[in-house]
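Let's study a protein:

___
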Amino acid sequence: MLMAYDDKKFLSNRKKMVKNGYSLPPRKSLICRWAGAIFLFSASVLGISIMLSGVFPGPKVHCGDSGCTWSLRPSLLLDEDTMKTVQASPTTEQIFDAHVAHPWVRTGIIGVTALDKGPFALMLFSIGLALRRLGGKRREPLAEALPWLRRASLAAMIWAIGRPLSDSLMVSLLSPATPEGRQWAITVDLLDIGTALMLAVAAYATVWALEAGLKAQRDLERFV
């Protein structure tokens, strides 16, 4: 009888543990929500900058003793060596600015910028929502947060691969108005790409393991 009573008590406690699931103390929950809000705000700002990249190409802010001034210098979109060549001559820079002023070039800049920064903005957005759910008063905050963390890791993979392609597309788009003429070059830094991919894959694997653990927990809940 004592053994049977202990078994019932253990199963009852186990059910409570499974039912309660994951939860954070109020202070940590608040920190998660605020951190999530910061990530969401950063993603929003980045999204706005993508949409405005074709309207205001090459923004430049200069601050001095008399205050800060804001101007547009499209040549800042070029790589460092080409930018110095274009900026060395006012005539050359005027030709380049006229090229960037074409509507199809402005549209192309928006598209290339979206390819470059869009996945990163999606990653920030997904992390922000995951943190908000972890800190929220929900029945299963961890289970609701993990899918967003998985999306964030997938966005990080796309971002790591898409950066070299976006750089090449930007060169192809802007190079016709440079002294070197039209160019097509792919610059790949295997160390940067490999590091970003490894971190993204590690994050994805961690989320996958946690989701598998939650599934096993739900199976146990149905069993008990």
Q: What stands out?
A: The radius of gyration is 25 Å. The helical segments are 2-20, 26-52, 80-87, 90-100, 103-134, 141-174, 190-223. Residues 26-56+66-223 form one domain. Residues 125 and 157 are 15 Å apart (CA to CA).
